[in-house]
Amino acid sequence: MTALWGISFDATPISGVVVEFVKTARHFADRGTRVVLDLGYDIKADKDAFFRPYEHESRLLPDWVRLGRIAGIEGIAGYDRQFVADVLREVVGRGEGTHLLPRIDAIAHTLSELIVATWEAHDVAYVLVENGTLPENITYTKALHLAIDKYGARRGLGRYVLWRDHDLMWQSEPSSGKYGEYPYPATPKPPNSPHIHYLALHDQARRRTLEWAPHLRTIDVLPNTFTHRKAIVHSGNADFRREHGIPAGAPLIARCTRIIRQKRIDRDLHLLAGIPEAYLFVAGDTGESPEEYRRLTALAQELGVTDRVVFGGWLAPHEDDIGRSTGCRYSVRDLLAHADLVSFLTSYDYESYGNPVGEAIASGVPYVATRYELYDTVYGSKGFRAPLLTEDIPDPGFVRRVRDLLTDEEKRAAMAEHNFRLGERDFSTARDLLDRLVLTPMDERIRLSVVLPVYNEAANLPAVLDSLYHQRGMDRSTYEVVLVDNNSTDDTVDIAEKFASDHPDLAIHVVPEPEQGVSCARRTGMRFASVRSRGRVNAEERFYLVSADADCRVDQDWLSELFVAMESGKAAIGVCDYYYSAEHFAGRPRLWDAITRTLRCRAVTFALFGGFPDGKGFAVDRDVHDRVGGIEIFYQLQDGRFVNHLSDDWDFGIKVRGSGEDIGYVPRSRVEINPRRVDHAIDEVIAGRAYGSDGIIVMRDIRPESTAVSEDLTEEQAQQAWEYSIKDFTPKNTILPVLLTPSLLDDDAVIEFFTPALAERLGRRIAEIKDEMRMTDFTPIHSYKTPSYRLYFEFADEIFARLRATVGQDIGHPPPLPPCFEDVPPDRFVEFVKYYCEDRESGEAHNYFGNGGVF
């Protein structure tokens, strides 16, 4: 049985770092991996545990965690507690101690050999490093870097190491200066190793890490995790208060923490002094810092609160995540079941996450806290509610707010419920991310992930999967399919899983997405693929995320043409060609004419501008996808309910092009559009409502109960369908590209298409409109749509003239203007165009332009 080897630089038997290790390790243990944890006694010099044998520590951990250490480490000449302390003080803190550098390198080399030998003996398949970048022991960190690369190369492993920093130099007592100053020259920067996947606890930590080490390519956010289940009093913990001398009706404040000076438990004692009816329970090891414990007990006596303070010693960590230990009768959850309030009045610059706050939220207990340095990053900015201490010692106003909360049961319940619901939403992604990172590994040969959102596609799915399986020019080891099930109620998932079983040479992953909407499903699939792709050994290669639709069929060369185009060019997105099969519209020449005219226009403008991605088929460079934030979901109100805005693919393309990246057209990569999109929504197509109305862009379910073929359109219907199609097409495909990238108007081919005079006037007008809107429009959906509409009205006659000259005379002239313009004086036309396009409350402009492409 292979093992997960954990290394904690905390050097304590139980801490927030160790608790998070065990929570993460459970994912591996549940899948049959042995878990071994090195507590780091042989790493940190300030915990009075260097080389100390393990004794009772295992009783604080679940029985599936074994304690381990590097065999032979105590025999390394010169490696001892004093050496580690000297290096931290002189080399790291003062930037001196050059005489120690040769010893550091020599010891690191010897130590790395022992680490590799220990991992070999335990058959280690995964390593989880906790806090290894914090320069408490840079010799050990350097040894780890050497051992990771040596062991990974020897065993042919990919990114088998998860390296998670809970604390970093700039967020762990920076005022003390013990780690030096930015850019921390003595701290070993994290190497861009093909075997390490770095994890930050939040976005700010990730951003700061990349500022310090911009060479890193694989660093993701993995927040601390909490099991959301409200703590309750039950038969097993009913005697908790009685056994600790706490009256049944007394308000109880809980403090779960290490008893060290940085945690500022003195503030809790001052708070308690102002609330004479309350009790305080401090759960922590009183022996870790005897001096601090003596100071606190003396302060409690001075404040007259000794009889209302319980230093309860270690409690077993949260039993849902760790398991009740054999050494402790009660767990943290038992304390929270009896507590009325959780306190976290910690130092400003000591905490990076604040696990007790998260535990309180997840257990349904209100909390109070300080606004420590990262509080807003982790909790405050997400909307969690709590009284916050901003003074050094609780002042009368803060004490009064806390006392009011303790005595108002309704207020406590409302605050706890609000925080609990937010926590369920915001802290529920960690397991999913871990599954993507490690537990669903990606073969190093894979270069493309095809993301396929599905919802009740049992009828179409076999043909779609078959077309993806029989791709020419692509070895099946180079691509995979990520099928995202969006709550299907038919046999969709069974069909996918059977296909995967019958075709083991093509990797197919089925991923659930509970939030309804193709946009949400596409986002989830691309994130799943992106994160996992960074675990490959050769993650430096360009990697591509490819979108496909479950009701469309791709040509046999679809993927190979996309891949070749992306590999040979610089474009961040490759856009496919789309077509309808003429046989589906036999006997309907008027409808077919409207469709083909639209496709001919698209071929011209896509060749000029690259077009925009359509969910039916496009590829995007993974690094660009991640840099712009991936697929973003916008919401709109429809009939009193929030619904997904459908054009996530177009919005994504706008973000990519707006970031300065190119979009390329790949005409030989072709996708056949399912004719049902027209056949069974023909009334909406004719009226320009196929994707909604009044500015609400959604797609209704158009799967038919029958397969009857529609009749051809009348001449009037065909004209109306064409007008809605060209009105939708022109703003988006001839105006929006140059609005986003005005430099296109300097391209010779684009100038030839528009003519020099029109190109010059367009460029000038775009600059004017952008300047006009720079402080008045912050809504991403509209910030490009409405100026595109305005430019359409202002330049429609000239643009249509160029389309006729380039595409064909049958393109005709612009459709009639909305009737409201009949009374507008010609000299005020541009002014009223602005009012019309900006009037989002009525949705008239959106209805006029068809609210989405109809063909």
UniProtKB/TrEMBL annotation:
Q: Which Pfam families match?
A: Glycos_transf_1, Glycos_transf_2
Q: Does the keyword section mention Cell cycle?
A: no
Note the superkingdom of the native organism: Bacteria
**UniProt keyword terms in alphabetical order:** Transferase
The yes or no answer to whether the keyword Acetylation is present is no
**Residue ranges of every copy of the Glycosyltransferase 2-like domain listed in the record:** 449-600
Ranges for domain Glycosyl transferase family = 239-418
Return the PANTHER family for the record: GLYCOSYLTRANSFERASE (PTHR43685), GLYCOSYLTRANSFERASE 2-LIKE DOMAIN-CONTAINING PROTEIN (PTHR43685:SF14)
Q: What name does UniProt use for this protein?
A: Glycosyltransferase involved in cell wall biosynthesis
Q: What is the lineage of its organism?
A: Bacteria, Bacillati, Actinomycetota, Actinomycetes, Pseudonocardiales
